[in-house]
Structure formats: structure tokens, C-alpha cells
Amino acid sequence: MNILLIHSPVVKPCEPPAGPARLQGALKAHGISCTLWDASVEGLLVLMETAAGEDVWTRRAMRNRTRNQSLLQDVSIYRDPVRLHRAVSDLNRLLAVSGQKSGVRLSLSDYREEGRGAMTCGDLLQIAEYPERNPFHPWFSQRLADLLIREPFTHVGFSLNYLSQAATTFAMIGFVRRAMPGVKIILGGGLVTSWMRRINLAAALRGWVDCVISGPGEAPLLALNGIVEAGMSFAPCYDGISWGDYLAPGGILPYSASNGCWWRRCAFCPEQAEGNGYQPIPMSQVVDELTGLRETIHPALVHLLDNAISPSLMEALIRADIGLPWYGFARFTDHLADPAFCRALRQSGCRMLQLGLESGDQSVLDVLDKGVDLATASKSLRALKDAGIGTYVYLLFGTPAEDEAKAQKTMDFTVQHSDAIDFLNVAIFNLPVGTMPELERRAFYEGDLSLYTDFVHPNGWDRKHVRRFIEREFKTHPAIRPIIQRDPPWFTSNHAALLI
């Protein structure tokens, strides 16, 4: 086997892909030839460079393109919100202009075809059939041809984790199938895993994709080469990554210390509905891998990608002192309510924690089985603030247990703790398919690949009313508005830790 691993557009161009890097690590550990290509960051940079527009704003953005890219790689701009917003907006404008001719709403974080709703299998096949319709086609057709001619790849693997990657992934699949029919095509990634829980994706893509992988891909890829490995994890390998291309200062290293979630009890949890277990990497191995990556890559920041960083991993990082700043998702626990623990966590390098509060009403949290106690959350926010750790708090309005009065309690909690909350993610609840079966469903997205469905709210607290409350009351509150405005443009949580 000689495999080309492709991370296709569009994913925020601030850090390399962690999943393909771990796949490359497993393959190279067994002597299998492998090349990792982050086509997402390369493709976005090419489209910025070749954007064409005659209006004054686009000409200004093109004139300042190189300078703005360099600015986003300089930590000092993250202390100047006005300049940061201008630089990001100008680069985003170039992508928006590049997508217009193809009828695509293209940005630094998303790809949406105008007039297309949820993705269907039929859409994927049509995209593969006509890859030239994709705005990235002039670039990737040449790059793929050069790569596949220069190197005798036997397999091309695509890592599809986000819906924003789907269109270009299948356009690239269509090109490879047409241009190099003898090359085997492999498809995997988080989004593919979720789709395969719903439909027989391998059958639907027959003729286009030779192998569809569900879940972690290390063992299936090794098995294709006749190697059987059970329960082993291999250090990620970032060979082939051009760190200087990313729009972040010093290099952000993504790293997963586990698959799945250690809590895995939330009523709306897709991990539970899809039957995904929790698989942590041994703590000693995590510390060894991060230490090794520090010495070889010298990143400025580590992004821990775990669904929720376990308290045991936090304790391991405190003991090990890996010598790197880091951030990631965590749950409100008694550990974080302990000021001494938070100070030690800060000493370990913790710069920011992303925390899923969801609601400021205890009854809502209990019905959702979030395992969050509001008193503990309150103490945690204060302890983290005092320790100098930033907080990115996630709120979820419109859950089945909520009504307007309970949404008001969430606003009250946010206002009361506004001095301890650095950033907010405010979302309207979408019901993941396969969760909360007691609710009455109704059409939300018509696509057979949709991961969410609409429902009849038991309290009549429908999306229209929820949206009005968020926009007219919550976001306009004088204690909350500055937090909302502080969110980094387009990159949101991926850049937030740089502002702490």
C-alpha cells in the first residue's frame, strides 16, 4: 500500500488535521508508505490568491491579502480586536467572491451551495459526477494530477469530518475516479461514521468509493495491508504539514487523548445514540506523545480535541508539566470548583476551557441529564477566573425541557456571572436523530443524510419564539452584549484562547 491521505476543504485554516495525522502515525509505524496532504488550508489560500472582483472592497482585500495573512500569524494582533476583525473579514471576502461564480457561499469556516438544503446521497453522487462545478476544481484537478502522476499511490483516503468538507471531498473523489480509475478510494472520518449509523453508505457509493470506514481508521487501514492490531494507539505524525500556512501564530497542535465522551449520558447525546464508546489513551502515553511532539514540532499552543477532557487527564497534565499552553472542552465538575486545583491547572499550561453549561435552570439540566450542578458551575467560573483561565461557555436554548421563564433564568445566570465569562456560544437546540424518542418528530431537513430532526416542543417554545428571545432580549442585554462582541470573527473558539 502507498496511500495519499487527504483533508479536503473547507475547515478553518488555523491548525492541521488531527485524525489523518494519527492515521499517518499508525501507518508509518508499520513501515507503510503514506503522504498526508492538508488540501483544505492549501485550497483556501489558493482561492484567496486568485480571487477576482472589481468593487473597491474586494480590490482592497486583494491588495492587503499577504499582509493580512502575516498579521494573523503574529500574536500581537489578537490584542487589537479592530485590526483582527478587519484582517479576517478581508480574507473572508476573497473567499466569498471566489465562490460566487459557482453559486457557493464560501467562507473561512463553511461551504454552502445556494439553493441546496440538507445533503443527500443523490447530491453526493451528482457532485462526484460533475467535479468541474466545484470552485476548487481548477486548483485541485491540477494538484491531484501532479501528485498521482509523480508518486505511485495505490490508495487515496479522504477524511470527511464536517459537512463543510462534503462537497469538495466528493468533487475530488469524482476527479480521482475519472482520472485514475486504478487507484483505490477510501472514505472515513467523523461525519462518515455518523452517516453510516443511518444508511448503508458503502452500498450507496458503490462504483465511486472502494472502502468506507466507520469509527477510528487505524485498524481498518492496517488490515487492508494485512496487519492486525487490536486496541493499540499510535502517536500522530505531522510529516508533510506546512505549519507556516496556517492563520494562527506559532503553530496550533491539535491532539486527541480519547475517542468518545467519558460522561456519555446527556439525553441528546449523539455519541450514545450512535453507540460510540469511550476509549481513552493511557495517561502515560498521552504525556509521552505530547512531550515528543513538543520537541519535534515546537507548537505555540495545544488544542485538546476530546469531547470532554476528563478530570484524570487534567490531573495527569498537572503532574507532568508538559511545558505547553493548551485549551479544550471540559465539564463542570467539583475539580473545577476547587480554587487550588484551578491554580494548578493554570500552572500546567491551561489557557482556556470550553464549558457546556447549556442552561441556567437546574430543572432543565436535570431533565437533560447533563450532570451539571449550577452551584458547582458558579463556583467553577469564579475559580477559573481567579486562576487566570479563560472560559468559553456554551448555551443551548429551545431544549424540550425549557420554556421562556426557564430561558430567562439562563439569561439571569449569564448576567450574574458575566464578569467570569470570556466568550459565549449561543445556539438553538437541534434534535439529533436517534435521541429523545418520546418527542413527536416533524420534518426539519429532508435529506437522507441529515443528522438532525425537528420536533413539536412540549411547551410550545418553538424555534421562532426562541430566536426572537435570543436576538431581542438575550444578546442585547448590556452585560451580555460585550461578551458576544468579543468572539473572534469567523474562527470563534479556535482563536479565542489567543485572546486570553
Low-pLDDT runs: none
Q: What's the tally of helices?
A: 21
The quaternary state of the protein chains shown equals single chain
How many β-strand stretches? 18
Report the biggest beta sheet as strand number plus sense, adding barrel if it closes.
6 strands, parallel
| Class per helix and strand makeup | alpha/beta
> Which term fits the overall shape?
globular
Helix content bin: 40-55%
Q: How would you write the strand order of the largest sheet? A: 8-11-12-13-14-15
Average pLDDT, rounded to a whole number, is 93
- How far the N terminus sits from the C terminus, by CA atoms, comes to 45 Å
Rg, rounded, reads: 23 Å
Percent strand equals 15-25%
Question: What does this protein look like?
Answer:
By secondary structure, this protein is an alpha/beta fold. It is built from 21 helices and 18 strands.
